[in-house]
């Protein structure tokens, strides 16, 4: 099913207002997006299906929180990302191969045809270029790729407080430079 960003927002708004056919369409669309997102991350089909159902249930429970002024796909992938992280935390025995996955923002841009997403990525890179290389790498790992502070500290061989301080300073720098 190929639908535009405006159509998904409109469908979700109709679903929030109780239109059953819109809700069915948004669930079908969401299912296909979630499957594409999970396939390279979870090899086992049964486990992938279990997680897909958990994400669909989370979408159902959180549907009242969707803001129609924001892109539906971003909202859906945020739920998917957090539910995937929770799933891996609960099921630590699941073998995971992250070598064939890409960060969520790269996956999303590759799997959508929205020019806005590309513009956002370019704008993000422009803002990040105002930071030091160390700050850029830390922000990308933690805020974009979803690494925890502890994982980023291990990855960059830094202390947790040092990572937190660097990220805080990077965000402070971005805010001050964006207000200029």
Q: How many angstroms does the end-to-end distance come to?
A: 43 Å
Order of helices and strands: HHHHHHHHH
How many structural domains?
Answer: 2
What is the count of DSSP helices, taking H or I runs of 4+ residues?
9
How would you characterize the largest beta sheet?
Answer: none
Briefly note the structural class of the backbone.
Answer: mainly alpha
Classified in CATH, the superfamily of the largest domain is RNA polymerase sigma factor, region 2, helix turn helix motif
Would you state the CATH class of the largest domain? Mainly Alpha
Kindly estimate the percentage of residues that lie in beta strands according to DSSP: under 5%
CATH fold-level name of the largest domain: Rna Polymerase Sigma Factor, Chain: A
Shape-level CATH architecture of the largest domain:
Orthogonal Bundle
pLDDT averaged over residues: 80
Percent of residues in helices comes to over 70%
Low-confidence stretches: none
Question: Any overview of this molecule?
Answer:
The protein is an all-alpha fold and 180 residues long. It folds into two domains: 1-96, Rna Polymerase Sigma Factor, Chain: A; 116-180, Orthogonal Bundle (Arc Repressor Mutant, subunit A). 71% of the residues lie in helices and 0% in strands. It has helices at 5-16, 20-38, 45-62, 72-90, 104-110, 115-128, 133-144, 149-156, 160-178. Helix 1 (5-16) crosses helix 2 (20-38). The protein is globular, with a radius of gyration of 18 Å. The mean pLDDT is 80.
